[in-house]
Amino acid sequence: MFDIGFSELLVVFVVGLLILGPERLPHAAKTAGLWVRKIRRSINSVQREINAQLDNEEMQQKIAETNKRMLQEGQAIQNTITPLAVSQTEPEPIPVATAQHTDQVDAADLTESPEAMTDTDTKAKQDTQRLIDS
What average pLDDT does range 30-57 have in this prediction? Predict the structure, then answer.
């Protein structure tokens, strides 16, 4: 970290011995060691917090990208399904009667009983329902 070699440590030790003396040097070295340990712990703690925060932000970004991609894929699937659903629910057109059939009215058709008319209506409804279902 500080890139201090053995020769530099030896010079610091000799200067400390000359300034502090042999009685106070061990206590000063112990205190310096404690301070260095505390500083290293603090630096490591800050580095861990920064890395955890960066990992958290990266994970949130990945989640946001995944959500965006899923929404786009969902829309694409919905757009694919919607035309199919519309084409399946649209009833087939009922053939239109020709002009000959609509102009010609038999007298027998006018004199039918009400029961016969309801049977004809029921059959027409069933035919229409069959066309819609298919």
Answer: 95
- Residue in the structure block whose two tokens are 């965006």: 68
- Tokens 């969902």 appear where? 74
Q: Are 134 and 92 in contact (CB under 8 A)?
A: yes
Q: Which two structure tokens, joined as six digits, stand for 18?
A: 């000359």
Contact present, 27 and 19 (Cβ < 8 Å) = no
Looking at residue 62, its pLDDT comes to: 96
Look up residue 59 and give its two tokens. Answer: 């994970």
Say if pTM beats, i.e. exceeds, 0.90.
no
Residue type, 131: L
Give me 116's structure tokens: 């016969």
Hey, is 106 helix, strand or coil? coil
Sequence-ordered list of residues with C-beta below 8 angstroms from that of 128, at least 6 positions apart, any chain? 94
Give the pair of three-digit tokens for residue 69.
Answer: 């991609």
Per-residue pLDDT tens over the stretch 66-84: 999 999 999 988 888 877 6
DSSP secondary structure code for residue 92 in this structure: P
Contact 94, 128 (CB under 8 A): yes
DSSP state of 111: T
